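User: These chains co-purify. Model them together.
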Amino acid sequence: MPGDMSHAVAARSSREASRQVDRLVALLYAACLIAASVLAAVYIENLYVRRGIQFGFRFLSEPAAIPIDHPPIAYYAYTDGYARALLVGAINTLKVSLSGIVFATLLGAALGLALLARHPLVSLVARIYIEALRNVPILLQLMIWYALLLHLPARDRPQAPESTFVLSNRGLSVPMLGAELSPEFCALILGLSAYFACYIAEIVRSGVLGVPRGQVEAAHALGLRPFHRATRIILPQALRLIIPPLGNQYANLVKTSSMAVAIGYQDIVSIANATMTQTGQALEAILLIMVVYLTINSAIGIVLFLYERSGSNRAR
Amino acid sequence: MYLDRLRAVTPLLLLVALLAAILGVARTSKHSTDLERIRASGILKCGSHNGIPGFFFFKTNGQPAGLSVDFCRALSIAVFGDVNHVRLVPISMQSRFLALQSGEVDVLLPPTAMSIKRDTSLGLTNVATLVNNGVGFLVSRKLNATSARDLDGRTICVIQGSTMERAIVDYARPFNITIATRPYDNLQLERAAFFSGRCDGIVDDFVALQGDVAAAPDPASYVVLPDNIAKEQDGVMVRSGDASMEKLARWTFYAMVQAEEYGIDQKNVDAIYRSRASPEIRRFLGTEGDFGKALGTARNDWTYQIIRQIGNYGEMFDRSLGKDGLGVDRGKNRLWKDGGMMISEMWQ
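Assistant: Joint model of the two components:
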């Protein structure tokens, strides 16, 4: 049919045109990339070579003049290298991020369910909490938490061994477990989990509401008990809606943990800053910061992706 | 297919290109030396940590003051001929070297301790020691400590990236004691943490500690321990690679020291300038000879202008750190002929 023929020709020529556009765009990208590389090289030349600094990672093995407060792994300032100091920083970032994620999720889930509660007072309280915390900058909140913790009573003499835990302006200590949490760590965990719980609460709420009403009604009709309705019908379906945006919030939390610098917690940014000050290797230090956050966030993304896939397989 | 992949990295690519373009172009200046570039910009950017009594702080009327501010103005007279080209840039302890390397500031002023590491590995150059200082501890009287040796097992708040962290470790080792450190990158936060009891003491140079006692909520409950655990030379640093800028900064300092040695101060400089002083003094003040021209200062009588507007070294010290400021003893910062360490190379 002549009509079909002209269609086919038109389709082929449009494919041809789009292929040409593709080529053009690819060429533009390549040009951009080359220009960027050249300019970056000029920049490095200016910043480094002219000032007598050599680009490279050799400084990593030099002894680091960075004392670290309560390092999570064995670390000796002035003996161990910058690599180890940065590793301690990365572990501190990981520590605070993971604890923050756990507490923010627990608090966020509770708040999200509270928002859905039938009792108006419960949902009102949850709503007020969320609006209050979500609309105040996290930096300010961290500083307030830290100031509050520093104004706790002083711990003048060693605590009695029988006490289960001691909270003072030197932090939280649990003698029975041999655990010592610094006020900086506590302030960071409190701040991050209180803040990100707000966003997680909204995600949980919308996830639960996103489950089609018919599903709940069908569960009713089948005579499932409220507990089984929640765990077997609502939760698996809500999780599929909750996990992707939850992953975003986790990534946000990890990145926001870099605010640690403001209250003197020695995370990767803090250690990298000190490294820059001492060695002048600013670009390398920033690259390392990027690598750490990228690694942590990619790992979280992969875990959530695997969980989501296994979850959706189960639901089917 | 692969276009999709390319599309995915578009924002990243564009960002990199933009960033590189801005930085690359910004740094590629047509002026070859630092001094020429500073002159062309019309602004001398002086970097110092602000809020440090004696060095760089704001008076109750909002005016910046301190020894670092005074020296910056003196340098501005050398570079531009007057003090109206100064921009004071507050920088953190952590970012100060980066700020100087990147051109955010042109000179780094005290309190910055000078060391061989900083002179050789940062692309920066130590130019002159403005204040000979020592490092010690400020502690709460509750500790009942009379010496730094009593600090075994105590926690001391420090500024991260400072030379003081090292000083503590080096001090503690021979006595076989452990002094824990709690680092902050922000001076105000560090001080606030100390005064609310987060640590048992702070470590800093004696000049700064003197200022802290004065500013403490309850000065009587704190004491500066007598031990001097390390020397510290607070000085001026510039970017390496421009000898003319280094010379200008160094001789600005010498001019102020030499003026004190000659007995020339803010009060008598006009009279001496007009009088028939000795040829040596006339050459120093720039009414004869060409020291200024040889150095590349904006005007040949730059020393006269500095003394008239800022004063000699002793006046600068007394105003901010000494008897009219923090009340710190002049000590090693007296002139060499008075038993101190302040000395100028010869003006001939």
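Chain A touches chain B through 50 residues (CB under 8 Å).
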